[in-house]
Write a structure and sequence with these properties.
It is a single chain. The protein is mainly α. 69% of the residues lie in helices and 1% in strands. The chain has a two-stranded antiparallel ribbon with strand order 1-2. β1 (159-160) and β2 (163-164) form a beta hairpin. α9 (196-221) packs across α10.
Length: 290
């Protein structure tokens, strides 16, 4: 138990931080009932504070339970080297979730569950430019999350004494990542209009499947930065793609479209199976080195 005190400390601080940040919304009875509904100012502030909880938890765990150490090295907070590789890894981190989202929308459309609207090149270009700017501005918030999940928790679960247990690390990190969202799921955040007993299992599936994609980017680069970029894309531009390409008058159900629904699960499962089959999910030479 003593050997794992840093793990429990991390989870305690991360989860407590999320619940405390969401408390103002919970006590006011906030609930998101429609996927097109925008979040208000209070919700944005609460979400921003919540997203820094995993990073705070990681710092606390490294500093106070593991006897200190250099935070940047402990959490893989560094750029890939050389710079050409850094640019390539960051572009990959955006291109992969974009491709997965496009494939999920195409699958949903073929199944008759995604209502494709009339989209022209001008509107898409304008939306993409604005979306990219918004994603870049929000990157610090996603550092707040991924310094915890990819910087600290996954490597911590990967190592068990002298053994490495990748499958256990992927599954446990994915489940912990999903359940951390419980307060927002209760309020209809990711699955508006759905009961918690539907949205919680759906979120566990989504997070467990997307986590290996983030981890693959982190392992191949030796840096948490590409995982941050991919997470930011999935949570902002990927969600925006669902709305932008849909019929503006059609109802949107995240459970049946995008990466958070069953089309996304199928696409991500296929991609993760490819990564696993080709050995890209196995850390070589330690969790920080590709």
């Amino acid at each position: 138990m003593r050997r794992r005190r840093d793990l429990w400390l991390y989870l305690g601080v991360a989860y407590a931080g999320m619940w405390l940040a969401m408390l103002p919304l919970l006590v006011t009875g906030y609930r998101r009932g429609d996927a097109r509904e925008s979040t208000g100012a209070l919700a944005e502030v609460c979400i921003a504070f919540a997203m820094f909880a995993p990073a705070l938890a990681a710092v606390v765990a490294v500093r106070y339970a593991r006897g200190g150490g250099r935070l940047r090295e402990a959490l893989a907070l560094r750029w890939p080297r050389p710079w050409g590789r850094a640019v390539r890894e960051c572009l990959t981190a955006a291109a992969v979730p974009a491709g997965l989202t496009a494939a999920a929308l195409a699958l949903g459309a073929l199944a008759g569950r995604y209502p494709v609207g009339d989209v022209d090149a001008g509107s898409v270009t304008g939306w993409l430019a604005g979306g990219l700017v918004g994603m870049v501005v929000s990157l610090p918030l996603f550092f707040g999350e991924e310094l915890g999940w990819q910087g600290y928790l996954f490597p911590r679960l990967l190592r068990d004494g002298h053994r490495t247990r990748p499958l256990r690390a992927y599954l446990l990190t994915g489940v912990a990542f999903a359940l951390w969202h419980l307060p927002t799921l209760i309020m209809g955040g990711q699955y508006p209009g759905r009961s918690w007993y539907v949205s919680v299992p759906a979120m566990v599936v989504s997070c467990t499947l997307v986590l290996p994609v983030f981890t693959w980017l982190r392992l191949r680069s030796g840096s948490v930065v590409p995982a941050v970029i991919a997470h930011a894309f999935v949570s902002s531009l990927s969600v925006g793609m669902v709305k932008e390409f849909a019929d503006p008058d059609a109802a949107l159900d995240p459970l049946h479209m995008g990466l958070t629904g069953w089309p996304g699960w199928i696409v991500m499962a296929a991609f993760v199976a490819f990564l696993a089959r080709t050995g890209r999910l196995r850390p070589a030479g330690g969790p920080d080195r590709p």
